[in-house]
Structures are given as C-alpha cells and as structure tokens.
Amino acid sequence: MKFNELPEREGVQRRGWAPLFVRKFIRKVGGLNPNGEPYYRLVLAESIYELHGGHWVDWPAGLTIQEMGGTPLVEDKEFKKHVIKLAGSGLPAQELVAEVRRMVPSAHQPLRTVDEMRLVQRYPYQTGWMLQCWRPPEQFGSRTWWEAQTVPGRPDLPILGPFPVKGDYEALDHVERGLNGAEVVRTTYRELPDLTGLEEAIQFLEAQKYREREAASPEARILIRIHDYERQLAANREKAAADRSMYLTELLKPYLGNSLEAGRLRTKAAEEAGLKRHVGN
C-alpha cells in the first residue's frame, strides 16, 4: 500500500504523519470509527493545526520579538538619552526597565489587527509523538452551544472553530519512568514508540474508557477546550513580555553600576546622544 493511501485528516501536516507501518498497525489494533478512520492515531504534536476565531495582530516580516513589543534598540539615540538620564536615579533594575519601556515608544507598529478565523497550532508547547483517540460528535455537545462560544463582539466567529460534525481527536496521557525511576505522566513520546508499547497503551485505554475526562459532560468538554485555548494565548503573552523584559535588562546592564567600564559606556553614550553633563564615575 502506498504512503498516500492512508492520509491523515486535514489539520495534520504531512511531516507529522507516523510511518505507514505504524498507522497500519494502529488501525488493526484499535479499529476504525464510523467515518472509516482509525479510532486511535499517532501524530507529531507540533504538526497539529485547527481553526480558531480570534483577535489577531500582524507585524511586518522579519521583526524580532523585542521589536514587536516596542523594546528600543541600544543604537537608538533617544534610547541612549533615556538610559543616561535614568542610570543615576537609583531605581531597582525592574523599575528601570519598565520606565525605559514606557518612555521610549516602539519604532514599529503592527500592519493590522483583525478579528477572523485562522489556522493555528493546537499544541504550541508540545513536541513529540502524541497518541490521540477519536471522540464522537455527541461528546462535544450541541452545535448551537459550541458555536455560541464566540470572540467578544463578533458572534459570527466561534472561538473553537467549526463544530466537529465528524467527531475529533483528543490527546491521551501515558506513563513513563523517569531517570530516577519515578513514574511520570506525559502527553507525548520523546521518540517514536515501538509497536508493542503502542499496543499496550491502546489496550490499557480500551479498558479505561470511563475515565473522568472521557465521562465529562459535553459542556465540560467544551469548557476544557476553551480553557486550553485561553491558556495557550495567555502563555504566549506572558512569554513575549518576559522575553522583552529580559532583553532590555541585558541592554541596560553595561550602563549601570560603578565600574570603570560602566562609566566609560555612559560617557560614550552621552556624547553620541548630545548630552553635555558628566555621566561617568
């Protein structure tokens, strides 16, 4: 059988498909759902995409995370002026960073902000092989209730995308033994699992069909997915903010303190910024 004769659903990039012999084995062991698809599937977590309604911000191509966040570059003349003015203020580093960010606006602006449906990674912080199980559409509640979860001010944009009329796949956890011998619950496999391990995992899951997550009401399942989506958005924002602050903190370090090098840098920056007063040590 050719590779293309066992394609995955739309939303899984081809690079994320398991090898053909693995997919054939899973179909044999786990069976097929009413759509003729495998009841279980093994795919790379980072290759799974799905539609979401959201408020999106588009930036010019090629900008760094710092530039998108408005963090000024050390070569900027205005930035140097603000650093020199604040260097002797005695502010704690964290407050100094916040003050410089507030005083120096970004030289870059988003190309646009828009509310629309987009294809985004479902598991942006997961990597590795993920074993998933198919769930029938009735486990996701009514289509009306699903589509009522919308982007604020845009009732035409469902946060969770189109209702899964053919059901959908959800991640399954498995237990691995860590380096210290302790058992660790993981959602992904670091490496492609062997067929024996996959068969044992599927048999175990078949025997545990009424676990808490599987027995959850349709409403609870939707709330779980909304929570997962919102958690991903919040994590993205927090990581971007932390990256910007760390970047700016590193930029400011050479200008702070009482070392000869810090004084020399302040003097040089003051000259380049056109400041006449003494700023060295």
Spell out the key features of this protein.
alpha+beta, two-stranded antiparallel sheet, 281 residues, 2 domains
Characterize the largest beta sheet: strand count, sense, and whether it forms a barrel: 4 strands, antiparallel
Number of helices: 8
- Beta-strand proportion: 15-25%
Number of β-strand runs: 10
First-residue to last-residue Cα separation = 76 Å
Molecular shape: globular
Low-confidence stretches: none
Give average pLDDT, whole number. 75
Question: What is the chains' assembly state?
Answer: single chain
State the helical fraction: 25-40%
Question: Can you write the helix and strand succession as a string?
Answer: HEEHHHEEHEEEEEEHHH
Q: Number of folding domains? A: 2
Radius of gyration: 26 Å
Structural class by SSE content: alpha+beta
